[in-house]
Write a structure and sequence with these properties.
alpha+beta; Arc Repressor Mutant, subunit A; 59% helix; 14% strand
Amino acid sequence: MANENLIYKALANPFRREILRWLKAPNKYFVEGYVDLGCGVPSNAIHARGGLSQSTVSAQVAVLVKARLLVSTRVGQWMFLARNEEVIRAFATEIMLHL
């Protein structure tokens, strides 16, 4: 499993939790027609939805990637982001069993 402390740190920020919520149901939160190559949501769509500076959103996404809650995939010039469901499920199980 991923580092629990990194996951707790990542989840402590409301904006990062919001990004995870958006990526759980991307068709609900992102305009239809965004480039979908089966790799997740383009990072620029997250920047646009976030309403914050690109550097702020990138820093928040980097924390989620470091905690392994998000997976980033580069396709050409595009960076796609998707939830790492395996890590999220394992973390939820750990919480259920040990807290």
